[in-house]
Amino acid sequence: MVLVGVVKLMVLATSNRRNASKTVLSLKINKMKNNAASKLSFYKPTIVLIALLSASFFSFSQTIPNGGFEEWVQESYGEEPANWGDVTMQLLGDYGTIQKSTDASTGNFAMELNSVEAVLFDSTFTFIPSVWLNLKNFNSDSAKFAIDSHLTSLSGQIKLDLAQSDSNSVSMTVLLTKENELVAIGAKEWFQSTTGDYVKFDIPLLYFENVEGDSVQVIITGGSDDFPVAGNVMKLDDFKLNYGKPAKTINVDFSVDMSGSMYQDSLVGLFHNFKTFWDVTWMTPSGNNDHIWTLSEELPTGKDFQYIFALGDLDSNFYSGEWYNSEPDEPCLSDGTDTTMGQAADRRMLMLPLSTDNDTTLATVCWESCDSCENSALGVNMSEDINEFRVFPNPAQSKTFIDFTQGGVKTIDLTIYSMIGQIVLSKGDVVLETGQLELDLNMINRGHYIVVINTGGTLYQQKLIIE
């Protein structure tokens, strides 16, 4: 039986365990983000995290208070490392869940966490250590560390000896908040003992929004809350907070034309993963009685996103009924497979290269159509002089030519997208010596596509038909 549980992680392991730098985790927070205070309290929220773990380390870092665990203080309930606190010890007393170890990676000491069995009230319990940065007197409000830069990860050294059990694990969680609102999270879980000496770890932060945090919480759990076993020995040393530059952001405008649909009076939303989690943002009418719904989002460059246009419920402002049992559907997107790319064709893709500097207006999508609206009021973000970017022949069959004659442009990036946003052809750093580029289309299926040219900050788009 476990008396204290803080965070539960469930890792979705990939089939290739050797590719540890790309382990995929699944994350889901049971509590609403606007209730961050309760989310950070000592009852146990369920978290299922989607993240890409990275093996990289950052050159600029700030040491966590007593991140080397060299300083220890004697409290009435036992000895703890300065600036760190164990929930079990502060609540129940010293049962050996946290100890000062001379087996250190650097320096004289390391922090050792142990899962132990002990008798309390004539019953035997398994105590799982739960250590928080700056936890004192069991007060979670003080268990945080103020920061003023863009936090990217928590790194350190770990030496782990796990007791034999199928469901045994230890974990670390990093919570970044802004005025007590959760803005980013990072987590890692270990299911196997380390071999030999200490090994490095790095836990990257996933930001929900383009908001910088002002405080960070670090939570270390020395065992599984659901399947507790005694005998775990977890030694930790050399903790650091790593910082970097905030992502560059641009405004991206989305729009959907409902004028030809039987659902033209329905509420329309954008179902997306712009803020790490899949979430919905409701769109607003353009105000011209044209049944066009619009949405502008500030998004970081250098990332790929997925989204779907979907219907909502005007009465309740919640998802339509079909969303309760599954993710929403957009009529022109299917659950099939695009044979060209070998990927499921049920998402729109948005790629924002790091070189993108200008705000972008995407082509207006016609509801119940897999094509952009040629006569839409909102169109695409392209040059006013159509002759600067020409695709010919168009329609094309086995090949086509791109004629881009904007003055001074010598190098471009060219991408061809399907109408659901999948990349079917990509060419980077193309030097236009003659201002013209020949494209081989033999490997692309017949259909309608969007050709996008990036000149290093400005995007130009044209429609291409392959017959």
How would you describe this structure in keywords?
single chain; Immunoglobulin-like; seven-stranded antiparallel beta sheet; 3 domains; 44% strand; 467 residues; mainly beta; Jelly Rolls; 3% helix
Describe this structure in words.
Helix content is 3%, strand content 44%. Strand 23 (284-285) and strand 24 (292-300) form a beta hairpin. It has helices at 36-39, 87-92, 321-325, and strands spanning 24-25, 51-52, 61-63, 72-75, 78-81, 84-86, 98-101, 110-114, 116-120, 123-127, 130-133, 145-146, 150-161, 170-178, 181-190, 199-204, 206-207, 215-221, 233-244, 249-257, 268-275, 277-282, 284-285, 292-300, 303-311, 337-338, 343-344, 348-352, 360-361, 365-366, 389-392, 399-404, 411-418, 423-431, 436-440, 447-454, 459-466. It is built from three helices and 37 strands. It is mainly β and 467 residues long.
